[in-house]
Design a protein that fits this description.
By secondary structure, this protein is of the alpha+beta class. It has one domain (about 15-239). It contains ten helices and five strands; from the N terminus they run H-H-E-E-E-E-H-H-E-H-H-H-H-H-H. The protein has a three-stranded antiparallel sheet, with helices on one face. A two-stranded antiparallel sheet has the order 1-2. A hairpin with a 5-residue loop joins strand 1 and strand 2 (about 50). The chain is globular, with a radius of gyration of 17 Å.
Length: about 240
């Protein structure tokens, strides 16, 4: 990686490979951090330049300007559910190597995103809230539905935590601005009015986690398709 051009992104790079064994790539992969800095240091919908700094002590990525002060961290946008004990009866039915292949592509850049990292009033961050909420379970499509509703002033399971970071979401003006900034177009309809869900969805009444091998395989295939498409968008954005 050291001799690559400054704008080089390897969309096949598995961030676990340059992370200490057993540790979190979101926190400790230097390649992932450099990719986030490169990709999201760019002009906002209003034309202002949003530059990210990776040299501030104990801060993953940092921005301070007239736009405000922002502390960002990486979050694995994709959840494979493949290491959950409660999912073992489903994962055991996969072909050999299938679960690991899913995890590997999930740790490429198309499966990564940034959210504000600073706690507000000691409460959960977006990263924490979307992981712990039983109606979200770290699903990126369900998270985006909550963000879509936030911009539309509609209620969702993540309304409280998203509202705490109103200044961050204000950077992108509206949901379309947010989607286009983070290259998430393959997760929404063309006009950004609706989410392309990775599992059947009925107003957060349907299960957030696959319950059968067929539903898991469908979720896996749609998720991989999204990651591959987003990786191509990422590659094009730096070419």
């Amino acid at each position: 990686m050291m001799n690559m051009p400054a704008n080089y992104i390897d969309i096949n790079f598995d961030f676990r490979t340059d992370t200490p064994p057993g540790k979190d790539p979101d926190a400790l992969s230097p390649t992932l951090r450099s990719y986030h800095k490169l990709l999201w240091s760019k002009h906002l919908p209003n034309g202002s330049l949003f530059t990210l700094d990776d040299t501030k002590d104990n801060v993953y990525l940092y921005h301070q300007s007239d736009l405000g002060e922002f502390f960002l961290s990486s979050d694995s946008a994709i959840h494979t559910f493949s290491r959950w004990a409660s999912m073992a009866h489903i994962i055991s039915q996969l072909k050999e190597g299938e679960a690991e292949a899913f995890r590997s592509i999930g740790y490429t850049m198309g499966g990564m995103i940034v959210f504000p990292a600073n706690r507000v009033d000691g409460k959960n961050t977006i990263n924490g809230a979307r992981g712990f909420h039983p109606l979200i379970k770290d699903r990126i499509d369900l998270t985006m539905e909550c963000i879509r509703r936030y911009y539309m002033n509609e209620i969702s399971p993540l309304t409280d935590v998203l509202t705490r970071y109103a200044e961050f979401f204000g950077l992108f003006h509206n949901f379309q601005g947010y989607i286009e900034f983070f290259l998430l177009q393959d997760l929404v309809t063309e006009d950004c009015s609706a989410i392309r869900f990775l599992m059947p969805f009925d107003d957060f009444k349907t299960p957030a986690v696959p319950k059968t091998i067929d539903s898991y395989l469908s979720y896996k295939d749609l998720t991989i398709k999204f990651i591959n498409n987003r990786n191509q968008r990422i590659l094009k954005s730096v070419s």
